[in-house]
Amino acid sequence: MSNAGKTIIYQSYRTERVPSWISRCLASVQDWVKAKGFDYRFYDDVMFKYAPDWYRDKVQDQVLLVSDLARLVIGKELLGEGYERVIWMDADLLIFDPTQFEIVVKEQYAFCYETWVDVNEQQTLQANWRVNNSVSVFCKGNSMLDFYIQACQDIVQKKTNYGPWYIGTVFLTMLRRIYPFELLKNVATISPFLMRAILQDKKPARELFIKVQDHPVYAGNLCGSYAIDGYKGLKFEERDYEKLVEVLLNGEGGI
Questions:
Q1: For 7-251, CATH number?
Q2: For residue 234, what are the β-bridge partners?
Q3: Of 133, 162, 184, which Cα lies nearest the Cα of 62?
Q4: Closest by Cα among 1, 4, 79 to 41
Q5: Which distant-in-sequence residues (6+ apart) come within 8 Å of 19 by Cβ?
Q6: Which CA distances in Å does 178 have to 104, 110, 127, 138, 251?
Q7: φ/ψ (deg, to 5) at 9
Q8: Taken in order 223, 229, 230, 235, is the CA torsion positive or negative?
Q9: Global confidence as pTM
Q10: Three-state secondary structure of the chain
Q11: CA 49/CA 55 separation, integer angstroms
């Protein structure tokens, strides 16, 4: 029911100084969209204008916080154009097995199940489940979109201390703990520690990811937001992301 009708995939990224690995991620989505016969729309930095000025001022134009709201407002606009289903995909999402990758939802909306491979204070590997919005699905008549748009603005307006993932992963994970909405489990979250494991052929982190994810994955969120500042001492250069893309594409994610 919720998968019938006209579907559009939409993405956003800057159009200057685009890393080559991001271009390959975008191309993987565009090729998949074309094969599925869906519509596609790309937004450059104009996307950020979809967030109110006061909101952008309050978050000091932090890209992730502005994007979290702007993607929702655009999704509502696209539904208003007559689409039956709108699907946001992050620019650093790589579809590495397009023949197997499908987005089928039973409910009116869905977000991504995330297995986050990390280390604790004792430097021991661990993996926790979370929720992210790297792929977000909204069908016509859904009850989530207006609520989420309002919640984003209320949180930013009323709070003074929030990190870049507060109204994305943090909010959605907390909400999911008490409200069991649908999650997509065929998209991997390639955390920096999982990325290191893939590039260096380290099995423990990969096996831990498989155990927690417990579902085949055909696309991956490459977590490009850590490309500049790194994470817990791990820092990767553009050539590392290029290699990651190559490994995932060549092995169709079987790694």
A1: 3.90.550
A2: 231
A3: 162
A4: 79
A5: 224, 227, 238, 241
A6: 23, 15, 21, 20, 37
A7: -105, 135
A8: positive
A9: 0.94
A10: CCCCCCEEEEEECCCCCCCHHHHHHHHHHHHHHHHHCCEEEEECHHHHHHCCHHHHHHCCCCHHHHHHHHHHHHHHHHHHCCCCEEEEECCCEEECCCCCCCCCCCCCEEEEEEEEEEECCCCCEEEEEEEEEEEEEEECCCCCHHHHHHHHHHHHHHCCCCCCCHHHHHHHHHHHHHCCCCEECCEEECCHHHHHHHHCCCHHHHHHHHHHHCCCCCEEECCHHHCCCCECCECCCHHHHHHHHHHHHHHCCCC
A11: 11
Q: What one-letter code names the amino acid at 117?
A: V
98 Cβ neighbours under 8 A, 6+ residues apart? 28, 31, 32, 35, 218
Q: Mean pLDDT of successive 10-residue segments in the chain (255 residues)?
A: 71 95 98 97 95 95 95 98 98 97 96 94 90 98 97 93 91 97 96 92 90 93 83 86 95 69
Residue 218 token pair: 């055909």
